[in-house]
Each structure stands twice: as C-alpha cells, then as structure tokens.
Amino acid sequence: MELALSLGDTSKPFKFLDKTPKLSSKDLGFCMGLGSGVTTSTRSHDKLGSHENNHQEDDRRVSSDPPLQLVLLPFSPVPRRHQPPSKTRFPWLTDNFSWLGFEFSVVSEPGSTEGSGRGFDVNRLSMDDADEGAALSSPNSAASSFQMDFGIRSGRGNKRDLEAIEASRASDDEENGLTRKKLRLSKDQSAFLEESFKEHSTLNPKQKLALAKQLNLRPRQVEVWFQNRRARTKLKQTEVDCEYLKRCCETLTKENRRLQKELQELRALKTSQPFYMQLPATTLTMCPSCERVATTTTTTNPSTSTTTSKTVSLPAKPRLFPMSHGQVQAHQAAS
DNA sequence: TTTTTACCCCGAATTACCTCA
DNA sequence: GCTGAGGTAATTCGGGGTAAA
Fold it and tell me: Any idea where this protein resides (predicted)?
C-alpha cells in the first residue's frame, strides 16, 4: 500500500496516481492519494468469509479497485447551520461516487469552486430524491467513514494509526470550530430500516452492506441505527413488562384479599361445622408461550364428594412483537 | 495445547444535535 | 427569540467471541 499526501502543492504528483484522472491543481487545497497494493482480503473480511463464503468474491473486487484519489476543497469556517437550507449540488462530484463499491471517482472540475466548498454529502450521495434534512452533511462522520474504509483496505495493525488520525482530525475540527452534525434520516429511510428490523433485529455484514447501499447510507450508520433500535425496543419492552407486572400485582392483591376473606369465612364455618368442607387448594399455572398466569382454587366437599374449581386469569404478558410460528404452535398445543 | 494478541460485534451508558411546544 | 423537554444519531467503554501467531 502506498500512501501519499500533498498539501497545497500538487505540482509533483505521485506516481501511482498517474493512472487516475488528472486534477486541476488550482482548485486543490488538499490532495491525498491512496494506492492499494493489497491483493488479498483483509483480516476482518477473512473472518467474515468464514461465516459467509460468498463474501470473498466481494473482497477480491474491493482489493482490485483503482487507487483512491481524494480531493477536498478549502472549506469555509462558516458553520453549516448558518448556511441556507437549500438543496446543494456539488458539480465536481461524479455520479458514480460510491462508498460501498469503494469506487471513488471524485473528480474536480476546473472552475467549480463556487459555494462553500464544504465537500460532498456523505449521507445522501444521490441527491435527486433527497429531502433537505437528509441532504445535510456530517463532516465528522465523513472523516470516520473514510478511515473505516481505509482500514478495510489496509487490514490488520492499522487501527491504532487510524484512531490517531481520527483523533487528530477531531482536534482539527475543534480548532476550526466544528462540532459533529447530526443526520436526520428521511421518512423513507426510516421506514425501510423499520421494515428490515421487523424481519431481523440484527444484521450480518452482508445485510448491513446491502441496506447501506440501498439507502445511500454508510454501513456504520446502518449498524448504529440497528443498535439504537434494539435499545429502544428493549426499553419499550421493559416499560411494557413493568406495566404488566403492575397489573399482575393488582390482580393478585385482589385475589389475595378475596382468598383471605374466604379463608376467614371457612374458618368460621369450620368452628361451627368442623367436617363440612376442606380448605381450598390454590394452584398457579402459567401458559409457557403467552405467559398468561391463572390461579385455580379447588375446593372439595367431603360430604358430597364434589369438587369445584374457580380460576382467575391474569392478563396475558404483552409483547411488542407477534409470536413466531413455533411459539404459536406451542401456544396452541398448550391450550 | 495453551496463551497472547488483534479484531469485531454488541449492549449499555452517555453525549450532542435537532425539533417542537 | 429564548428555553426546556423529548427524540435520536453518534460516540465511548467494556465484555465476549474468534482466529491467527
């Protein structure tokens, strides 16, 4: 792997960049080239491939990509929030810029330095259907994303270096008065993610990449979304469980009062008619699938040898998600 | 075979940004 | 315009699992 960095002066281009489209040096405030000589899969992808062999094909494709050439225009120190919220296009971005295919075809058009020069939109690369909220960029996220992609290329042992770079860049951002900006997912993106979450609450790497590609998001964003979504689900389930336990407690308290009262009555009856009736036997049963709890009080009249049962059902435990097919079968079998 | 190391993924906690009343 | 609350994207941290050396 070759890494070349040039600040300001691109009069001496790096050799391995010769294969890539020429840039107009007058527009460049920062030029970085990354030539990957890696021909094998990274460690992480090897590991991934052990789970899913069909990823190896993708890995080979990744490693054979042409060298990366990244051009950043000198950015304006004006915070984005002070910029007009209009949809912004960056004519120097070609349409085939892609995060997921690792095909960075960023080309600078001569004379295209208009605008703030804050760079490209990492969240919505295809801006045609982007709403304004989703079209806002996230500078810090962009930085971390690039580092992640580099890490995939460079493989083992570079994580610390990348962290150092990230920390360095973060400090640079602080110096420039930049703070992390927050992406707002569009309704369509959220809806799609929700649908995916209903199908599977966790993602394997392949699903993550596919989702990211489909939604024009970075895989990390998809991953974070699913993590946060699981956390929200768990929190909601905890609240629901809490409510359920409260209702159970109330029901059981009522039942306990009733039984105490009944016991008193029976004791009183026993003193007057000692052989009339045995004490009731109360059992608790619970449906294993829906976790519905029922208390059954069975009383036997020895004189008539008849048994009477009274069942009080507690509310079924609410679930945020419907039962699976297996759970339904188990429930039907149990009932 | 066991240990060490590096990496990845996840949950939990937290931060920080954004929107809205 | 200011402010506080709520939602949520993003970050940080620690633990567990895995593969390679």
Answer: Nucleus
pLDDT (average), residues A95-113: 32
Instruction: Name the residues in A224-243 having a C-beta closer than 7 Å to nucleic acid strand B.
Output: 227-228, 230-231, 234
Identify the pLDDT of residue A246: 87
Q: What is the CA A283 to chain-centroid distance, rounded?
A: 44
| Whether A64 contacts A102, CB under 8 Å | no
* Protein residue closest to B16, using CA and C1': A180
In what order do the strands lie in the sheet containing A30-35? A2-7, A30-35, A68-72
Identify the sign of the CA torsion A9, A12, A13, A18: positive
- The SS3 of residue A254 is helix
The nucleotide lying nearest A123 (C-alpha to C1') is C9
Check if residue A203 sits with its Cβ under 7 angstroms from strand B. yes
Tokens of A277: 């009736």
Estimate in Å the CA A183 to C1' C8 gap, whole number.
Answer: 10
Mean pLDDT calculated for residue range A148-164: 34
Predicted pLDDT of residue A297: 62
Taking residues A78-106, report their average pLDDT.
31
- Strand B bases contacted by the protein (CB, 7 Å): 6-13, 16-19
Whole-number Å distance, CA A25 to C1' C15?
A: 49
H-type alpha helices, A104-204: 139-154, 159-175, 187-199
A61 vs A286, residue with greater confidence: A286
Per the model's pLDDT, the better-predicted residue between A237 and A42 turns out to be A237
CB proximity A42–strand B (7 Å threshold): yes
Which residues does residue A69 pair with via DSSP β-bridges, in sequence order? A33
CA of A289 to C1' of C15 (A): 31
Residue A320 main-chain phi, psi, to 5 deg: -75, -25
Q: Which helix (H) or strand (E) holds A4?
A: strand A2-7
B10 C1' to A328 CA distance, Å: 29
* pLDDT tens per residue across span A215-228: 989 999 999 999 99
pLDDT at A273: 72
